[in-house]
Amino acid sequence: MRTHAHGTPIQDPLAAACATRGVVKAMLEATARRLQGLSPRAGARAPGTHELRENATLRLEPRRRGVTVRARAGSFLVTQEGDPIDHVLEPGDGFRTGRRGRVVAWALSGGALEVDLAA
User: Fold this and answer.
1) CA–CA separation, 102 vs 56, rounded Å?
2) What is the total count of domains within the chain?
3) 94 - beta bridge partners?
4) Residue 10 confidence class, pLDDT cut points 50, 70, 90
5) For 66-101, how does the pLDDT look when each residue is reduced to its tens digit (9 = 90+)?
6) What is the mean pLDDT of the chain?
7) 71 bridge partner residues
8) Longest C-alpha distance within the chain, in Å?
9) Cα(68)–Cα(60) distance, rounded to whole angstroms?
10) Among candidate residues 88, 82, 105, the one with its CA nearest the CA of residue 28
11) What is the CATH number of the domain that holds 33?
12) What is the distance between the alpha carbons of residues 116 and 29, in angstroms, rounded to a whole number?
């Protein structure tokens, strides 16, 4: 193993990036589990506007047709199971899933998130 001059191991940048993504995903999932009783827990049949305080999460379980989420106020990080890309939504931005796979929205700031069933 290669080391820096002061003796600490040199970490591969790709491995570090992958590890960081895994840590962030694990943190989001742990936060979603921890806050299930405090934040709305919704299925794909829970359309409407959800008010979320900072650091709260909204967990969605889309069915076959997916869901559309739109930021009405505040900023949100939205991630979907099986999708390698996370989406940051600002007011007016939206994200549509076209398939099944748990969706978690994390409020980066307090705000309102609208959930619509995909047509």
Assistant:
1) 16
2) 1
3) 70
4) low
5) 889 999 999 999 999 888 889 999 999 999 987 778
6) 78
7) 113
8) 59
9) 11
10) 105
11) 2.60.120.10
12) 22
